[in-house]
Amino acid sequence: MAQTQATKVEHLLVLENIGLSFKGVKAVTDISFAVAAGEICALIGPNGAGKSSLLNVINGVYQAQQGRIRFAGEEHRRMRPHDAAVRGIARTFQNIALFKGMSVLDNVLTGRNLKRRSSWIEQALRIGRAAGEDDRQREAAERIIDFLHIQPWRDTLVGKLPYGLQKRVELARALAAEPRLLLLDEPMAGMNAEEKQQMSRFIVDINRELGTTVVLIEHDIGVVMGICDHVVVLDYGRKIGDGPPDEVRQNPEVIAAYLGTRH
Amino acid sequence: MPTFTDNPQPGTLPQWLQQQARQQGTGIALRHKRLGVWQVRTWHQLAAEVQHLATALHVRGFVPGASLVIVSRPRPEALIAALAVQWLGGVAALLDPLETAAAQVPLLRELHSEWVFVEGHEEIQRLRAAGLAPRLLIYADGRGLAEVSQAGDTLAFAQLLQQGSDHRLEPQARAERTAFAFYRLGVGQRLEQQRISHAELLQEGRRLVHGEQLGRQEEALAARTFAAGCQARYLLAPWLIVGFRLNFPENLETRDQDRRELGPTLVVGTRETYERLHTQVLARLPEPGSWRRRLVDWALVAHPSALQRHLGYWLIRRPLRDVLGFSRTRAPLLVGEALAPPTLAFFQALAIEVCTWPDPAKWHCPALWPAPLVNGWIEDSTQPA
After folding, report:
1. pLDDT higher than 80, residue B385
2. pLDDT, tens digit, 9 for 90 and up, residues A32-84
3. If residue B191 lies in a helix (H) or strand (E), which one and from where to where?
4. B173 is in which domain, residue-wise?
5. Are the beta carbons of B297 and B231 closer than 8 angstroms?
């Protein structure tokens, strides 16, 4: 039988007509787009375009006043950050949010909290399920540490690490939760070219090796075009482009608003 | 308890491995740090894995005298692969894994080996850049190789190991045949090689074992790149002869931490090894002129008074030895070029008496390349007399 039927794309995340405003100031207006399972999707746009706000809506930090979000086939009107984490959404932040006085390993282990089955009392007294669980959680954390090549700093206090490494530790902590969807808010901000290249490679590896769907905000267009399957362009809270990198690159509105008009 | 001086003595590395497995099967042969934990292999397990891999390679047509090119950082799989081809009478050809792609690709092109073991994706990219299509490509780390691993000529180490049977294939290595080969591109990009036979390795290994009075209680760390003749002579051969523990670090970046954790008794290093450690210490010393620095400088100078010596030892020298991972080292060996005077003086001040052993490496151009097949063996024409 001839295979004429087009392959149906499975969407992990669907945003429909999302609107968000703060005291009457519109941050995001009527945004709709879908992220296919297994893709790397970039949100790009000038500062103040609403990218981080949108990421905050996806993982429940902000509640959209308008629109619907569908994640993994389930529709959510109001999702709290904890619900998002339980459902498999993890994120990193524009400004690093790690426990600076804790070691790399301990920071990564905090990402495993939702995977623990023992109660706090079992953990405090190291009885029941807690006893065997520690080894399993440690092994899972070590796998992430190995994956992101941060073994040499396993026992180092995070506050003593250079910025680029702290970004990697934050990524490790997010990955430790074994997310289906990983939201990365400017994962390469402030990095030099070599660090950006390394981080890009890790993001691609996370996507290909672990099968994690990634939505990232990034200002480096070279990186975005190089590693992403799908690009959504925002400008003043509106969506002005949505498609594969090559298509978005040709979009005149995108060129004018963000990439710059050719003279 | 049997010792390495028992007669009759095996004449090849695989025979020594067999002997160790017989004599101390449950003793620990290898330790490798993985996911933050030291994983162990007993002599019995190691010998079984080597034998399984050897039978799998044999089934795939690996003939005595053939070479397996190995491009890998120190890891147990690379060592097991080397021992497996030696079991079959083959040659483990080790290339420097830290060499740049620009330098290594022409060398790989020149070698055009049919049998290759690589660590992972990066090395496979190099093989591709060299236009190599080996008969069998074995890789240790499958990360980034989802598409590659589908090909029939490319197999994960673990997969190949599973294909090996329990069929008892006796070691086919011969004492006078090459065990390890090392290659480089010399003047005018001409291929140069260094070949070391089983007999030569064992002879020099025994010399070291006698000279340094090595025993089974030793702990050694294979922290250098897995591609130097001196490592084969002074680490691998003594390890098989004596039967001590060989430890592999988690990776090359963690080797200093792993050494500190382990406290090896036997250290086989080059000038670069010791100078790197010296530089690391210098970089972390307190500012010159500060009281802390003056205390360090005072402690590193020999004092006539026993009290001063003890104070210097407990306050500075002992902690410094711990930090360097030399807390238990009793055989710190230097192979090849001598240490620079300041580095030598630094280690002497810590009571680490670095003992120099020669590196008799001889590089020469192969007479016939590739070597012909004679009586089922790939002719080892350049074998040293």
Report:
1. no
2. 999 999 999 999 988 888 899 999 999 999 999 999 999 998 888 778 899 99
3. strand B191-197
4. 13-197+361-378
5. no
Question: What is the count of structural domains for chain B?
Answer: 1
Sign of CA dihedral B297, B302, B308, B312: positive
User: Quick check: B76 and B30 in contact, CB under 8 A?
Assistant: yes
**Could you tell me how many CB contacts below 8 A there are between chain A and chain B?**
29
A141 in a structural domain? no
Q: By residue range, what is the domain housing residue A235?
A: 11-88+179-259
> With contact defined as beta carbons under 8 Å apart, do A117 and A76 qualify?
no
- B215, part of any domain: no
pLDDT tens digits along B340-384: 999 999 999 999 999 998 888 888 887 666 666 666 666 665 443
User: Residue B70 — pLDDT band, cuts 50, 70, 90?
Assistant: very high
Choose the closest CB to B146 out of A138, A151, A208. A208
Supply the pLDDT for residue B7. 55
A64 domain-assigned:
yes
CATH of the domain at A254: 3.40.50.300
Cross-chain Cβ contact A138/B146 below 8 Å? no
Q: How far apart are CA A260 and CA A250, in angstroms?
A: 12
Nearest to A223 by CA among A261, A170, A187: A187
**pLDDT tens across B237-253, in order?**
999 999 999 999 998 88
**Cis omega (within 30 of 0) on the bond before B8?**
yes
Amino acid at B39: Q
CB contact under 8 A, A209 and B253: no
Tally of domains in chain A: 1
List, in order, residues 6 or more apart from B35 with CB less than 8 Å away.
A139, A142, A143, A145, A146
Instruction: Look at B36 and A151 and tell me if their CB atoms are within 8 Å.
Output: yes
Say if CB A223 and CB A184 are below 8 A apart: no
User: Do B254 and A152 make contact, defined as CB atoms within 8 angstroms?
Assistant: yes
8 Å CB contact between B259 and B325: yes
Residue B210: inside a domain? no
Indicate the length of chain B as a whole number. 385
Question: How close is the nearest chain A Cα to the Cα of B148, in Å?
Answer: 13
Round to whole Å and give the CA distance between B364 and B224.
24
Considering only the beta carbons, identify the residue of B34, B146, B253 that sits closest to A152: B253
How far apart, in Å, are the Cα atoms of B87 and each of B63, B82, B143, B373? 11, 9, 29, 18
Domain annotation covers residue B185: yes
How high is the ipTM of this complex? Answer: 0.77
Q: Which of B34, B35, B257 sits opposite A152 (nearest CB)?
A: B257
- How far off is chain B from A261, nearest CA to CA, in Å? 38
Asked whether residue B337 is assigned to any structural domain, the reply reads: no
d(CA B297, CA B316): 9
Place of tokens 């769907």: A213
**Residue B304 clears pLDDT 90, i.e. is over it:** no
| Residue closest to B121 by CA, chosen among B97, B91, B95, B94 | B97
**CATH number of the domain residue B96 falls in:** 3.40.50.980
